[in-house]
Amino acid sequence: MERSGDFQTITLNGTSIPCKISRKSKNRITLRVSPEGIIRVSSPPGIELDTIRDIIFKRKKWILGKLELTNKHKADSAEKVLYHGRTYSIEVSETKQSKRVAILPDRGIIIINTYRTDESPALILIKKLRREAKRYLTERIRKISTAAGLPFQQVSVRDQKTRWGSSSGRGMISLNWRSIMMPEDVSDYLILHELAHQIHHNHSKEYWQFLGTLCPGYKEKDRYLQKHSYLLGFYRT
Asked: Please, are residues 180 and 132 in contact by the beta-carbon 8 Å criterion?
């Protein structure tokens, strides 16, 4: 691992990858791969670089897999987008008297109309998806909350950078708008995951047992969210 200021570089399978290390008051080392292809490490103060390097090498397969997904998504993002778990092709047109964005499930395409606007197709699409997410997720959490008997006070659909959702002890639930890209059963699981925190305010054994009664097979859906966590860094205005 070579050092250059706050950045390091580390070579995995012959590829030199930038690595940013942040020293924080915490009990363990955590890793994530950013959309820019940077390995971001959060480490307690005093942990030696050799120790961090060893942990990165142990997670090499996971890191390279994340980088592959990120690079693939960068290549595809101008032409394709996920919506309710389905990949839609993106087409751009400039047509008078047409919807700004038309989602056509039967054809598997999303048409973005740039007629008389200075906004980029990407920005137009993001705004549309965020509106759809707010409408859909607000409706779903109300239905799921009633069906599960898990009340909440307020829901907000936000643009979190590192989380799919969060829940406070005061009944405030936040959902990431990008969850509208997930299959409906996965976004429903995310809602149940956060609602369950109204009963158990941590990730204890009791919490997971309780979640299992609400959503049998939740582990598969949780893995799906983790696999697609790279999306959290994309589609920013």
From this structure: yes
Residue that finishes a domain, picked among 41, 59, 75: 75
Q: How many domains does one find in the chain?
A: 3
Q: Give 124-173 pLDDT, tens digit per residue.
A: 999 999 999 999 999 999 999 999 999 999 999 999 988 999 998 889 99
Strands (E), the chain: 2-4, 7-12, 15-23, 30-33, 39-43, 80-83, 86-93, 101-104, 109-113, 154-158, 165-167, 172-176
Give pTM, 2 decimals.
Answer: 0.73
Q: What is the pLDDT of residues 74-97, one digit of tens each?
A: 555 558 899 999 999 999 988 886
Q: What residues contact 154, with CB distance under 8 A and at least 6 apart?
A: 171, 172, 173
Q: What is the pLDDT of residues 206-221, one digit of tens each?
A: 999 999 999 999 999 9
On whether both 183 and 104 belong to a single domain, the answer is: no
Q: Kindly report the length of the chain.
A: 237
